[in-house]
Amino acid sequence: MQNTFLIRRQSVLVFIGLLALFTIGATLLSEGLGIGLVSTSFVKTLGKTLCLCLVALAMDLVWGYCGILSLGHFAFFGLGGYMIGMWLMYARTEQIVINSLANASLPPTPDELSDAIGTQIFGVVGGSDIPAVWTFAHSLPLQLALVVLVPGILALVFGWLAFRSRVTGVYLSILTQAMTLALALYLFQNDSGLRGNNGLSGLQNIPGAAAVSQDLISIWFLWASAFALGLGYLFAVWLVSGKFGSVIRAIRDDETRVRYLGYSVEAYKLVVFVITAVIAAIAGALYYPQAGIINPAEIAPIASIYLAVWVAIGGRGRLYGAVVGAASVSLISSWFTSGQVPDLPLGFYTVKWVDWWLVLLGFGFVLVTLYAPQGLGGLFDRLVRRQNP
Amino acid sequence: MLRILTVMVMLVIATLPVAAQTGQLQTILQENSKDVERASRKTISAVLDALLASGNENVPVLLENWQNKQLWMRKADGLFFYVLKPGAKPIELINIDTGAVEGTAEKSDLKELRPNSGVRSVMAAVLVQFQLKSSDPMTRLGALSAIERSAEESHFTALRAAVANETDDAIRAKMQRLERLLTIQFDKQSTARVEAIESFAGDTSLDVRAVLNPILITRTKVAESIPETDNLAKRLSVGDDIAYADAYQMLVDSERAPARISKQARDAALVENISNGQVGGFEVASLNTEAARIKAYQALVAESDVPPFITNEAVQAAIDNHVFYDAYIEPEATVTDAARKAVRAINLSVSAYQIADLGLDAVSLASIYFLAAIGLAITFGVMGVINMAHGEFIMIGAYTGYVVQQIIPDYTISIIVALPLAFIVAFGAGVVLERLVIRHLMHRPLETLLATFGISIALQQLAKNIFGTQARPLTSPDWLDGAWIYNDIVSISYIRIAIFILALLFLVLLLFILNRTRLGLEVRAVTQNPRMASSMGINPDKINMLTFGLGSGIAGIAGVAIGLFGQVTSELGSSYIVQSFMTVVVGGVGNIWGTLAGASMIGSLQKVIEFFNPSNTLAAQTYMIIFIIIFIQFRPKGIIALKGRAAGD
Amino acid sequence: MSKNPMLLEVSGVSVTFDGFRAINNLSFQIASAELRAVIGPNGAGKTTMMDIITGKTRPDTGKITYGRPGKNLLKMSESAIARIGIGRKFQRPTVFENQSVFDNLVMALKKNRSPLDVAFYRRSQEDIKKVEDLAAEIGLTEQLHRMSGELSHGQKQWLEIGMLLAQDPKLLLVDEPAAGMTPEEREKTTDILRKAAKTRAVVVVEHDMEFVRRLNCRVTVLHEGSVLAEGSIDHVTKDQSVIDVYLGR
């Protein structure tokens, strides 16, 4: 069955092929395993971009296909990052503490260990007790389960409340934005148990892999991200190409009518909302070990809106559109804001792109919404249609 | 020799007149000249006592000048003079007894006495007694407030005497009140103190609370049985009122019980007795749990001279043999009883006032939310256009105010100019946005949301590029500074009152425009059925443009108000946007009253949550948003829902 | 009556919008295989009645039971009501224009509608056959793989009726099926509805007396939210109160 499914959709094969080529190419050019033409930090940027593509894919499923303009999916992304970050930080601190206590005159007791770890991690917010939310932080499998469970359950509860009361359209968008704001504000507090605005840091150091250089770790994560994106893409294509896709697109276009066909619209929306939240969380869990640090500012409502911008520019309702949009806009964005773009002297005024990039992006986005509502993907489709009428 | 004689004669002549005129004050000062010159808090009282004992009427003048560093000493003969103009050349010397000018001297010949602050406060305390008798009512009032600031026992008798002689009713009332306060603190008769305490029942002033609270300070004590002499406040039950560890520590501190072996002491003892990788017969490597360490230590107790653990039973027995209790420092039980009763009554009225103050705070926060949201109530609520750049219109208004203040330095005039100008600028921006973007995205709310969000990013960054990232001040005129103060608890700043009035004005104005004018009628017609409206000769494009401009312009005015209240930054608007949308949604879309209801609810809710958890406004906002999400479950159409058959299908 | 048991019983239903009583103590029954026309002037409460039966509007008072044993419809959601066999066709044709006629019909086929079942649904030969038969019945075989947005108005109406039939409902509520149709299209619509009514109950809300006459069935006249008259078309058109309501306006 999988065969027929793949053969039926050649574009999927093209996508997977391109993704593989890209990953192999980046590996061959990298410092870790290749000829060293591409720096390790750029490999990380590429890996992170793949994760952003994955969360954009989730956004496209929930918005482009199901019509729910969620302004909260980056919050799920961040939560996923927090969950994996807790293990990374805890396990690494534990190793450091064990090493430093190795020469103590008495072997440390569990209490002493946890005290020392607590002081290391929470000293910065004036605490030494390990908060209850870190109960499972010592175990990778449990914390990996939380990567899926915490955002999933949050999405389930929030979605159930919101969809049950038939909040739709912009109201739902505002509500999801409020949820995101509430989460970010909560995490900003020092007594949230997640180190307040300091966030979690040192996540690029993988516990138990201290001997492995960052050059190599960056390649691991590049492959992991590419694998996750490929898998996510296959899943998304499978989901939207069948009857399920038919139903959620119908919900997007006219949910009342779908209700009279006997489909429980709320259940479908909830399923899509939760599944995409989980995909976003997985993307976040892969992203933040490459970024090295996560803090509540990452979760701020604006991030989720940027996510919507990427998908809109790429072309919503097309899976490849989301990927193209996220990859191009985020890469160009980091290029402009890194200060690598030469300033533009106008004689009377010099345009510094670091300052003006957001102005350009903002107005550019308005133009896309006005004149290319289907995004780059829409333009591409029109071009293809013109060639093969 | 002759020359020396001449000089000596000259000197005698020069000093003679001075010596001849030495008055009583100068004499007293000369007798204590060492203590005068190098006055310290300890030594000064002797000098002051001598001065007071003299009964000289010029003592207050002397003390005042001394306090103000106007008492100088002539180095040559050690005599003291007043120097009122230290900048003059040469410096004029004034006799401290007669007040007459007595000659001049160079600055280098004189020494300025600089009493330190401790000395000055002692002097001030003495001075107060004279000031209370002064004929100038302002001086007497000044003395009273000096006593209020730091009351001393010596004031008490002086004040009592002054009350009897006071002629001014207002001042006498003040004096009597102060006298009662001092009675509570310093009277020897406990009946008089109790009476004074009872006279303050229900008085919520800070000074009363400041006097009563120290009476009720307690100290935790331990004894075999409670001594009769202690004024018992409460017997403590160990485990409930005081933790076992703390109770035992008290016993240890008062040497009634031996200290327990702490973990550190235990571990130190273990480390000290390690030999051949073993301690107490246990491998060191095995001591990685508490239980193992305790066992090893117990083994160690058996074989060497480390002190044994104190068992829990011993601790329990020691605690059982003692009573723990809180005792008042104040020994008089009648006084503490009266104070407790008075404080309870005061606390009751304090909490009543606190609720009133909370109400005022809530109203003021609600008016800010209302101002921020009312523009949205028109564009989003009435027109149904979602404008994520609404916050940036607020920001535009605030920056307009800032720019106007740069040009017009007079704050009053600049505010008067800024308010309409902010409206015009934001109105213009709104009209441009409507014509260029929103009109083309009619009936595509999600696209409108995103496009206006693009505008919002661009405008914010533009503001950053133009005005920089640091906050710009928007200064309110003097007459808006200060606050309306009802009592020590209830008060509200004028600027908040102004914002409240502004919010009220807008409410009335908008209700008038929407319900009583032609424009309002056409707006409602266009929003309900644009095709029908246009067939009746209304130009929907124009109406939409004007309405959107109106909403944006009001946001501009709100920006000036919010800028006065806080500071102008490029993030000013975006920090209100989520709350503003919440306000409109919670209140009920399409309805100005709904926005008012929403703002009131969110404002008071936030204040109430902050009241219960004052240290954490972030948490307050989090809980508020969660509450709103849940609230929408039960009233999806908001507080004031427009009823009717749903349109569509 | 016993050989044709009651399928739907509406009793004493009232609903008020903002002081306006749209449905006033309305009671009627539909048998399990019956074609019924509901007529009435504008504002008589026809659409509101359908809204109440399909769960969109909750009445203030009254009771609606459906099937044997009688289920209380008032406690069910719109989708649950649709799943137990009540189909509704809207006045404006509402099909999913971005999807093919085939996909529209597949979505409507009577199948388990839970998200999990739908996600793992695979088209069986049997289902494809069923869809093709339906397409033939509504005359859209040629258009089966075209986007439904490209269909003509009448074709969309038929597609919607086809989707209703695919749901295999026991009760079909049809709102003004003939609006905007050519005479030939009306003829065909009448045939489809009459045929459908042989195996199930069909309630047609209509303005057009000619169309109702052609249906040749029992007629219920609604006025100001309650039943004014009921009987054959000839019976109700002779009823004085009906004449007053229709002509008195």
From TrEMBL, chain A:
Major location (coarse): membrane
A GO cellular-component term linked to this record: plasma membrane
InterPro entries the record matches: ABC_transp_permease, ABC_transptr_urea_perm_UrtC, LivM-like
Origin superkingdom: Bacteria
Subcellular location field: Cell membrane
UniProt entry tagged with the keyword Ribosomal protein: no
Key word Cell membrane present: yes
Entry GO MF terms: branched-chain amino acid transmembrane transporter activity
Name of protein: Branched-chain amino acid ABC transporter permease
TrEMBL record, chain B:
One Gene Ontology cellular component: plasma membrane
Signal peptide: 1-20
Bilayer disposition of the protein: Multi-pass membrane protein
UniProt-listed GO biological process terms: amino acid transport
Keywords attached to this entry: Amino-acid transport, Cell membrane, Membrane, Signal, Transmembrane, Transmembrane helix, Transport
Family to which this protein belongs: Belongs to the binding-protein-dependent transport system permease family. LivHM subfamily.
Protein name as it appears in the record: Branched-chain amino acid ABC transporter permease
Biological source species: Ahrensia marina
